[in-house]
Amino acid sequence: MKKQRLATGCYYHVYNRGNNKENIFKEAENYIYFLKLWNKYIEPVAETFCYCLLPNHFHFFIRMRELQTFEVFKTSKVLTQPNQEQHFSNFFNAYSKAINKAYNRTGSLFQKGFKRKEIINESYYTSIIGYIITNPVRHGLCNSSAEYLYSAYEAILSDKTTLLLRNEVIDWFGCKEAFIDYIRAYESNLPDKYELLK
User: Fold this and answer.
1) Helix (H/G/I), strand (E/B), else coil: 19
2) Measured between alpha carbons, how far is 114 from 96 in angstroms, rounded to an integer?
3) pTM for this model (two decimals)
4) If we measure between CA atoms, which residue out of 38, 50, 54, 40 comes closest to residue 11?
């Protein structure tokens, strides 16, 4: 089955995991480097609402940039049409090469082809944020989303500079308190036990 192409202006849940469920993050520096590469390769073509990085997989909620917005990020190269798919490919290749070199490994780090699901209605928009932010709790990595270091939770509630669409997320829920309450309610409805990425 052919993968859905990423369409300009559309919203997506983007995710993938390590090949054979292998960990893609082996230590703290890996998470930081992954986000640094995300900002380099993906931010030019997509805006990020939230994310969560777990030891063997990741989740992002994004909106593909409009063509005119993309022009702001234009480099010295002539870009007539943003190639979103190539940006993602470059991103995964850059991270994989770095991990393979650092840990003396070979072969594919990620499962072939990243997954994407289009967010097409308001209820899905709300629930995907809850799903992504609470993923560490779902997989038993922490008791509360607020405890987890490698998700967008803290950045959404912070006043520090961020590339995340923080204001849009908070405005969607009405205020920071409403966002916190929603996440807590989402956590309370999670199963008691959940194997790390079944």
Assistant:
1) helix
2) 13
3) 0.88
4) 50
Cβ count within 10 A of residue 173: 17
Q: Which CATH superfamily is domain 11-188 in?
A: Transposase IS200-like (3.30.70.1290)
Secondary structure of residue 83 in the 3-state scheme: coil
C-alpha span between 161 and 1 (Å, rounded): 40
Written as tens digits, the pLDDT of the chain (198 aa) is 456 788 999 999 999 999 998 999 999 999 999 999 999 999 999 999 999 999 999 999 999 998 654 454 555 443 444 578 899 999 999 999 999 999 999 999 999 889 999 999 999 999 999 999 999 999 999 999 999 999 999 999 999 999 999 999 999 999 999 999 999 999 998 875 444 443
Q: Which DSSP letter does residue 109 get? A: S
Q: Which residues of 74-97 are buried (b: 16+ CB within 10 A; e: fewer)?
A: eeeeeeeebebeebbeebbebbbe
By the 10 Å C-beta count (0-12 exposed, 13-18 middle, 19+ buried), 38 is classed as: buried
